[in-house]
Amino acid sequence: MASYLVTGSSRGLGLALITRLASLPKSEVGTIIATARRDNSAQINEIASASSGRVQMVKLDVTDESSVKKAVGVVERQLQGKGLDYLVNNAGVTDWSPTGLEGMDNLNEVLNVNVTAPHLVSRAFLPLLRKGEKKTVINISTTLGSVAMANAFRPLPTPAYKISKAALNMLTVQYAQQYADEGFTFLAISPGWLRTDLGGRRAHLSVETGAEKAVEIIQKATPKQNGKFLNIHVPGWEAPEGADQYDGEEIPW
């Protein structure tokens, strides 16, 4: 029974990840810790009530170091002496700048949430992860953060988001390199273009599909994949027209 912690669980992909994990057998998924800035999410509380104690809500503002440290203490008590197996850094924000770089006025804010916060959370939870069996950290990224694919996504006016996710990918690699000898697995995963508040209604995939396919990668992750940037696999989406495809392969940096 592996334990999971997911940041940004009150909506979107985070909520879908918690829902998907809670639907899996207890023999596969044990404790599921859903974190968010506010601990009164009606949907999370509903899932928790129906989970027989498996889903537990923890208040966590990923950008506030004191909140992160306090959450570590709460989670440690909830795990009752056991380690944390999987940490999923999912919380994130995007931007919209129709005039491109000249209109990009929130780069620091986006970098803080999308890059600094995953560092703060990962660093703080390392002691609990060391005690876990899986020692796996997942950073939710995107193909928009691929420098090699930048030209394909040039029309999308989200420069701060693209820059921050490219930085998150490098953060993933840095952690992967430093903690490889301890048996850790650090992965960046692109869950696809999803119909969420962030992705919009025109997106390719339902958030449930993105969560299901991301969980498949997470559960199969091994130290041999440490430091990889992986795409989800959705049958029928292996080679569509355009840059968006979901073939389950590595994404170029």
What does this molecule look like?
The chain is α/β, with parallel strands linked by helices and 253 residues long. The protein contains six helices and seven strands; from the N terminus they run E-H-E-H-E-H-E-H-E-H-E-H-E. It has a seven-stranded parallel β-sheet with strand order 3-2-1-4-5-6-7, with helices on both faces. The chain is globular and about 50 Å long. The two termini are 33 Å apart. The model has no long low-confidence stretch (mean pLDDT 94).
Summarize the structure.
The protein has six helices and seven strands, in the order βαβαβαβαβαβαβ. By secondary structure, it is of the alpha/beta class. One of its GO terms (cellular component) is cytoplasm.
**Span between termini:** 33 Å
Taking Cα atoms only, what radius of gyration do you get, to the nearest Å? Answer: 17 Å
Helix content: 25-40%
Structural class by sheet pairing and helices: alpha/beta
Low-confidence stretches: none
List the keywords:
Fungal_SecMetab_SDRs; alpha/beta; 253 residues; SDR_fam; globular; seven-stranded parallel sheet; oxidoreductase activity; 6 helices; NAD(P)-bd_dom_sf; single chain
Question: Helices and strands in order, then pairings?
Answer:
Blueprint: E1 2-6, H1 12-23, E2 29-36, H2 42-49, E3 55-59, H3 65-79, E4 86-89, H4 107-131, E5 136-140, H5 159-179, E6 185-190, H6 207-220, E7 229-231
Parallel strand pairs: 1-2, 1-4, 2-3, 4-5, 5-6, 6-7
